[in-house]
Amino acid sequence: MANFYTDNPDLKHHLTHPMMEKIVALKERDYADAANYDYAPINYADAMDNYDKVLEIVGDICAGVIAGNAEGVDHEGPTVKDGRVTYASGTQQNLDVCRKAGLMGMAMPRRLGGLNFPITPYIMAADIVSRADTGFENLWGLQDCAETLYEFGSEDQKQRYIPRVCKGETMSMDLTEPDAGSDLQSVMLKATKKEDGTWVLNGVKRFITNGDSDIHLVLARSEEGTTDGRGLSMFVYDKRNGGVNVRRIENKMGIKGSPTCELVYKNAPAELVGDTRMGLIKYVMALMNGARLGIAAQSVGVSELAYREALQYARERKQFGKAIINFPAVAEILSVMKAKLDGSRSLLYETARYVDLYKALEDIAKERSLTPDERKACKQYRKLADALTPMAKGIGSEYCNQNAYDCIQIHGGSGFMKDYACERIYRDARITSIYEGTTQLQVVAAIRHVTTGTYMTLINGYDAQDVRAELQPLKDKLRAMTEKYQAAVARVAEVNDQKLTDFMARRLVEMAANVVMGYLLLLDAQRNESFTTTAGVYNKMADAEVAKHADFISNFDPAQLSLYDVQ
User: Which residues, 6+ apart, have CB-to-CB distance to 435 below 8 Å?
Assistant: First the structure.
């Protein structure tokens, strides 16, 4: 029987990365939960076996239920009546089976009803679910909102809300508004504090994924007379209390099973999360980083599906007396698709591991004081996670779209028809480079890690690791790419013009990403020989991309920058 975890050995490769032993020890507090919970692991091997078994359940459900429902959900979609959303029948079945299997709230602590999974295997589950049905991952994956509530909510809020999520209730993050998309500082939904100290919310939210969820995290303006981010706070709203209705569901290009809603708040009772004025500055930034990692996982899952659909079709489709996979032009497309898939997946799990490390240490800091070494490590891990998250989301989503495009191309005219899954994959993929911050916004977040040297620190660390003799030519090529990258960074920096830096930001970030992913695949190949071919393909592709950007930057005359202004 098909299983989307066991049929992909690359997932096990990333799950068993050497860094996981440290991550698991921190997450499990040296396995202290084993004394209180029968299902808590007693050591590292036990924990890894637990993750493996749960992911196998995820893979079984995704292959056996969710993937089979994907086409029907795409056609049926959700509906809205009297202010409430009804999911497509396949979506409801997906939710029911995930609830019965205990797959909701996986990353939450056991004391709150969760499985206490680290971020890495949780993100792996998101990768698998996305391969089955991109839109359903939004409903399942938005339970990551619980992570923000766990991180910043009061103990009372944690006890009341998080167990409900772990039992299967859904969540949403209500951020954007008709006049506040990416510019969240412009949010105007009003939060009013009543005389009894409670809060009510009034206004409109738009483009809210799973907007009729059970529990909402809401960004609202709590400070009268303010117009910027310092006047915004975060609130938790419980649908059972009433006051919020769905005005409409957006008619979207893709991910049709995931209802994207316009919400009307009318004196909706809500609770403040954390402190006032910190909603955007602190809490939403943390929430968005988690969401962006989730979209990076979604992108990898869609890339996986696109590659597999293309590969299967190329093996089966015959032209001129032979399968089209035997034509070099087709084989070349497939090899590049696989390289982009493997590169983005390696970057995804490298990011997840650093997120795991700093979040585990921050959680420990709530229980005891960190040692000076732990504080230093936590700060460094967070910096690396902050640097890699926009790269993983930005480049991963672009690769996802490219692979969806090439999937259709390999299908030819058939790919343009709804008879094949690739047409739906193409529509579903498109949103990944838009929501939770467009690729351009990911570049804005990433460029400071180019200029401050964060990426070079990572690259130097990768380069310091030994590789087998047969992999040395790949490493030498990566060193040459790194020199071109450093020269491009220096070329832009010496002009000392912020406009030029912003103009070149995409190219510099892409160069950094090509080098980083090249090294990650090299190290994958060092640990597992099955990655040797894809590391070689990616190396050649990355070399060409780095050279292209390096040539553009080295030959660019800053005096001509104004020529690119569009009026």
Answer: 207, 209, 295
H or E element that contains 449: helix 439-451
Sign of CA dihedral 525, 528, 534, 538: negative
Instruction: Please give the DSSP secondary-structure letter assigned to residue 281.
Output: I
Question: Contact, 435 vs 210, CB < 8 A?
Answer: no
Cβ proximity of 114 and 107 under 8 Å? yes
Q: Which residues make Cβ contacts (< 8 Å) with residue 285, sequence separation at least 6?
A: none
Q: What is the dihedral of CA 38, 39, 44, 45, to 10 degrees?
A: 110
548: CB partners within 8 A, 6+ apart: none
- Distance of CA 546 to CAs 333, 352, 551, Å? 20, 25, 8
Q: Please write the tens of the pLDDT for every residue from 117-134.
A: 999 999 999 999 999 999
Summarised one tens digit per residue, pLDDT across range 291-340 is 999 999 999 999 999 999 999 999 999 999 999 999 999 999 999 999 99
Cα–Cα distance for residue pair 515/358, rounded to 1 Å: 24
Distance from C-alpha of 151 to C-alpha of 317, rounded to nearest angstrom: 51
Q: Structure tokens of 223? A: 């400070």
User: Which of these, 296, 287, 357, lies nearest to 145 by C-alpha position?
Assistant: 287
Rounded Cα–Cα distance for residues 486 and 483 (Å): 5
Does 436 qualify as catalytic in the annotation?
Answer: yes
Catalytic one of 436, 470, 483, 494 = 436
The residue behind tokens 């090299």 is: 522
CA 184, 188, 193, 194 dihedral sign is negative
DSSP code string of 281-323 = IIIIHHHHHHHHHHHHHHHHHHHHHHHHHHHHHHHH-EETTEE
Give the distance, in angstroms, between the CA of residue 287 and the centroid of all CA atoms in the same chain: 12
